[in-house]
Structures
1.
Amino acid sequence: MHAVIKTGGKQYRVAEGDLLKVEKLEGEIGSTIEFPEVLAVGEGDSIKVGSPTVAGAKVKAEIVEHGKSKKVIIFKKKRRKGFAKKQGHRQLFTSIKIQEIKA
């Protein structure tokens, strides 16, 4: 069974057992987190699409780790003006493992 969940302003297609990195979430490593915003859920031809969410559907996941992604460089330049600006940051993430999809 697959589901489309929304977290951190992004949408992810997940199945049971999937491991994915999402925007940083609050919680301890090893704890269970629940995603109530399920946009679609189903398998094959029997897919339920919510408007905007599917009523009663939930996805449970376990927090595996917290960390920082690779550095992202932001470079801005205006030609012939002598303007150049370099910035960067490392985005925080939470790695989760999908345990259960309730439809």
Note: The chain has one domain: 2-102.
2.
Amino acid sequence: MHRADAATVSYTEIGVEGDLATLRHSQGALCQCGAALSELQLAPVGNRA
């Protein structure tokens, strides 16, 4: 978002497919030059009952 009174400061996206979760994060707006997108994949830890 780009406005005179506000702007995007970060972007976070969480995706789940089956038993795998993926977290993607960027410092700043994705459309800005140099805004890198980091990705972390999380594997299941098992049954915690």
Note: The chain has a mean pLDDT of 81.
